Automatic annotation (TrEMBL):
Keywords: Disulfide bond, Hydrolase, Plant defense, Signal
Protein name stated in the entry: Predicted chitinase
Organism: Actinacidiphila glaucinigra
Record SMART domains: ChtBD3 (SM00495)
GO molecular function, a single term: chitinase activity
Length: 298
């Protein structure tokens, strides 16, 4: 997106509970106590994060389960919480995209953009990909993932690649200024959040001080995903509706492009960029087994 744009605890592994379930469902393991960034974990201790239980291999503090830069300190112990379709055991959250489908969509992705991080972020916007019919839910998920695939080169880039742009994203007219430094608000995360005012707005909405610590978006997978979902669900950018509303109200994939980067891509300005997004969307809807619908371009 072109700059349009939040106790040390001893934890033990929890056992699964055998319960009577309707046909077609299966019991998932009970989740351990949620992971805490401030807690110290030693080898053998467990925590839950992103719908999975994780076990520390050795001493660790602050390394998010399932993301990069952790030297293999966490071992994935499998899914936990609620129930799951036996044919899709990696999806206890009810998200319409399974982990296998996610991996199929992004075979060369940076491990920072973890499926567990995405699942952990979904609670911030419970209406996302859970509104309307099964078709609409899958179309919205595909539309979101298609746009971020375009923004990040297939979930490869965590930060904006053109470092020359970095000093430009500080709007000094804002009363709160740029407390993290003039060059600190460059594009980060799946939707390439940028500008100090967007970091403040996203942080305020998510309850995270991103204005003073914008680096969280490139350090914590769940935070990164939440900033993408914040924009998708709450911002209309140069468009007339949020991308979420565009898909839920069946205005078409093209309106999500307009809301994200319409001022530079729509109305014939950059048809190749628009087509790149459309190609992603058509491929992802095919993976999810759903028709893409109409109004694909802007």
């Amino acid at each position: 997106m072109r700059r349009i744009l939040a106790a040390l605890t001893t934890l033990t592994a929890a056992a699964g509970l055998a319960v009577a379930l309707p046909a077609g469902t299966a019991s998932a393991a009970t989740c351990a106590t949620p992971w805490s960034a401030g807690a110290v974990y030693t080898g053998g201790m467990s925590a839950s994060y992103g719908g999975h239980n994780w076990q520390a291999k050795w001493w660790t503090q602050g390394e998010t389960p399932g993301t990069t830069g952790q030297w293999g300190v966490w071992a994935d112990q499998g899914t936990c919480g609620g129930t799951t379709d036996p044919g899709n055991p990696g999806n206890p959250s009810g998200f319409v995209v399974s982990e296998a489908q996610f991996n199929q969509m992004f075979p060369g992705r940076n491990s920072f953009y973890s499926y567990s991080g995405l699942v952990a972020a979904l609670s911030a916007y419970p209406g996302f990909a859970k509104t309307g019919s099964d078709t609409v839910k899958k179309q919205e998920a595909a539309a979101f993932l298609a746009n971020i695939a375009h923004e990040t080169g297939g979930l490869v880039h965590i930060v904006e690649q053109n470092t020359a742009n970095y000093p430009h994203y500080c709007d000094t007219s804002q009363p709160y200024g740029c407390p993290a430094g003039q060059a600190a608000y460059y594009g980060r995360g799946p939707i390439q959040l940028s500008w100090n005012f967007n970091y403040k707005a996203a942080g305020d909405a998510l309850g995270i001080d991103l204005l003073r610590n914008p680096w969280l978006v490139e350090q914590d997978s769940a935070v990164a995903w939440k900033t993408g979902l914040w924009y998708w669900n709450t911002q209309s950018g140069p468009g007339t509706m949020t991308p979420h509303n565009a898909m839920v109200n069946q205005a078409g994939f093209g309106q999500t492009i307009r809301s994200i980067n319409g001022s530079l891509e729509c109305d014939g300005r950059n048809p190749a960029q628009v087509q790149s997004r459309v190609n992603n969307y058509q491929r992802f809807t095919q993976i999810l087994g759903v028709a893409p619908g109409g109004n694909l371009t802007c």
